[in-house]
Amino acid sequence: MKTSQQQDPESPSMPKYEPLVERRSIEDGDSYHDRGTDDGVTITHGSKRYRTKDIFILLLASFGLIDLGLRAYALVQSRRSTSCNCGDTIEEARSNNCKYDSFAAAWLPPACRNDELLEQFERAGPNPDGSWPYYADKNGTKALSLEQVSMLPETGGHFFATHHWHLVHCAYYWKKMFLAVETGTVIEQRYNNLAHINHCEMMFLKRDPLDMIVTEAGVSLHSDRIVIAKSHAHGSDHEGNH
Which residues lie in Basic and acidic residues bias regions (predicted)? Predict the structure, then answer.
């Protein structure tokens, strides 16, 4: 009689089980090993395609950063070396290929203008044709044409404009500064400063009627100069340079 401790020699032997080797997924980016090969050779399964993809992405990112850096450097260098001055007279300004920029209230060379924005500004006014009203005095008794305004450097005179004009002038300068990164337009020192931004902020916070004449300004030929906005002696505290 066979005991429970004895094994029938004719019965098949019980299979032997080995513990599974813990393996990590291929997707984790590492390799893993198969140990149970017939010839005893260890096979390593790699994830080369994932590593190649990572290297490719890293190279693209590196080239992108280098390109951005070079563009930024070139833009800064060009701005440092480019003057927005046009000369001492309108005749000299024209000979320097400058033209009157109405939302800058200045004669500017091509490098310092965004002519597309300028065209938009000159169609954004309240007049039926989209132009802006300009005046020779605060009371608006004498209107000025855009051509007359552009010639003011010859006499050193000023023009007067509405609160509406002033607000849109500020908005278009913010557009010009934003687009400068893409277009490479040089922002003249006259407006490329925190003082002008603070001044525009103050104008936006005012509650003046849009058609109220509140702005007195000159026309500049030298836009490399920084002009601090201030009130003029012959007007109310609504008045100020733009």
Answer: 19-38
